[in-house]
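[User]
If only I could read C-alpha cells as easily as an amino acid sequence. I have put the entry right below:
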Amino acid sequence: MRKGISTAVGLAVGFALDRVFGDPRRGHPVAGFGSAAVALERRTYADRRSAGVVHEALAVGAVLGIGMVARRGAVVAVALATWTVLGGRSLAKAGRQMADRLESGDLAGARELLPSLCGRDPEVLDADGLARAALESIAENTSDATVAPLLWGAVAGVPGLLGYRAVNTLDAMIGYRDERYLRFGWAAARTDDVANLLPARVTGVLTAALAPMVGGHPADALRAWRRDASGHPSPNAGVVEATMAGALGVRLGGRTEYRHGVEMRPTLGEGPAPAVPDLRRAVRMSEAVQIAAVVVAVGIAFRRAA
C-alpha cells in the first residue's frame, strides 16, 4: 500500500478508535512520556533558556526517533499512533460532565473536574467562571487534542503524530510564565506556538464554517477572529477561542486566575458571558470540528499519494 494511502487509512482508523474507546484508562503512553519528561527535568533544569532548549531537544528528539522506527508498521502503526495522541472523545466527555454538574448545582464536583480540562484555579471560580473556563478550554483543546495531531499526521505520518504530542505535552508541563519556568519553559512554549500556527487557523476556519450547526453565523465567527484574536497573549488560542465565541454569540476573556497568578485577558466575541447551554453547544461544535478535521487530514494524506 502506498505511503500516503496507508497514512490516510491509519488516520481514519485511529480517529474511529478514539471515538469508540477514548483514552486508554491505564498505561497511557502520553502519561508515560510525561513521567519520563519529569525525570529528565531533574537532570536538565536550570533557570535559563539554553537549559530549556536542551530539555526540549532531548525529550522531543527521543519521541521523534521512536516515531521514525514505528512508521515502518504502515497502517497499523499510524492507527495506533493516532489513537494514542488524540483526545477528542475525552474532551467532549469532560465538557458534558462539567455541564451536568453545573446544571445540577454540584459546584464541588465541577471544581474537582476542571483540572482535567485546564490549569485554572477552580477554588476561586463560581458557576459562571467554571462554565467560561471549560468553554475556553474546549475551544483551545479542539485544536490541540484533535485538529493539530491529525494535520501533523497527514503530512508527517507517525513521527508527526508522536512528535506533535510530545511538543504539546511539554508545553502543558513547563510552558508557564511563573518563576520556575519563565526561562526554562520558554523553548517549550515557543515550539508549541510554531507547531500550532496552521492547525489553529484551520480550526478557526472549520469553526466558522460549522457555526450554523450551533445556531451561529460564520460571519460573526470570522468577525470575532479578525477583531479580537490578536489581543490574546497566545497567537493560537486567541484564534480558536475568538472564533468559538463568535460562533456561539458569547463573550469570553477577562480576569483569568491560574494557580501561578492572575492574567487579564482581552474580551473575545460579543454577547453575554457563557452559561451551561452554551457549554453544551461548544461540545457539539467541538465534535463537529473534529469530524471535519479528520476528513481534511485524510484528504491531505490521499493527495500526497497521488
